[in-house]
Design a protein that fits this description.
single chain; alpha/beta; Rossmann fold; Arc Repressor Mutant, subunit A; six-stranded parallel sheet; 10 helices; DNA-binding; transcription; NreC/VraR/RcsB-like_REC; transcription regulation; Response regulator transcription factor
Length: 219
């Protein structure tokens, strides 16, 4: 009887990093790289084609980001485990990846041994958070980021501000948002200004990019 092989899809926009992950996987018995992808769109297509057991997913990529790609893959193939391996370790990225269905989250500063252990753990059904990530998730609960039984990205924002941010990230103007929410345009303008301050961004384009990286406005 042949040994069961864990088939991995590696998703990262840097070829050298994908190659490095391939080298790590090559040292692991019973694990193989089934396919590679350089962005989220390719990742979703590759997952449909090769039916991987595990996806190693970067988050910040051109086009469709890793959060949205994770959401699509998990929706289509809930049995596929997703392990996030990224440079991003801010609160909203962690929360958004977990909400999208990722079962593990580690950062690219992790050692080869830590990455191998994470692959084994997540493939085995465990939920794994790296040593720099776990305390962040606990901190979100401790700060009261759990709203109605769910953790939200950008916990520093109020529910109304999150609602406004969602519409900004979808590309709506202040006037269109005011109409949608039945508020004055001045109220929306003030809310957007407050969001700028709380998130430390300097332009609407920067705000939209940060929101979409966190999975906000992707609906």
């Amino acid at each position: 009887m042949s040994e069961t092989v864990l088939r991995v899809l590696v998703v990262d926009d840097h070829p050298l990093f994908r190659e490095g992950l391939g080298d790590i996987i090559a040292t692991m018995p019973g694990v193989e790289v089934a396919a590679e992808a350089a962005d989220g769109e390719q990742a979703v297509a590759a997952a449909r084609e090769v039916n991987p057991d595990l996806v190693i997913m970067d988050l910040h990529m051109p086009g469709v980001n890793g959060v949205e790609a994770t959401r699509r893959i998990v929706a289509e193939r809930p049995e596929t485990a997703v392990l996030v391996l990224t440079m991003l370790e801010n609160d909203e990225s962690v929360v958004s990846a977990l909400r999208a269905g990722a079962r593990g989250y580690i950062v690219k500063g992790s050692s080869r041994a830590e990455i191998a252990r994470a692959i084994d753990a997540v493939a085995g059904g465990d939920v794994l958070l790296g040593p720099t990530v776990g305390p962040k998730v606990l901190g979100l609960f401790n700060r009261g980021a759990d709203r109605g039984g769910r953790i939200v990205p950008f916990p520093e924002l109020t529910d109304r501000e999150l609602e406004v941010l969602e519409l900004v990230a979808q590309g709506l103007s202040n006037g269109a948002i005011a109409t949608r929410l039945h508020l004055s345009e001045k109220t929306i303008r003030n809310s957007v200004s407050t969001i700028f301050t709380k998130l430390g961004v300097g332009s609407r384009a920067e705000l939209i990019a940060r929101a979409r990286d966190a999975g906000v406005g992707q609906a």
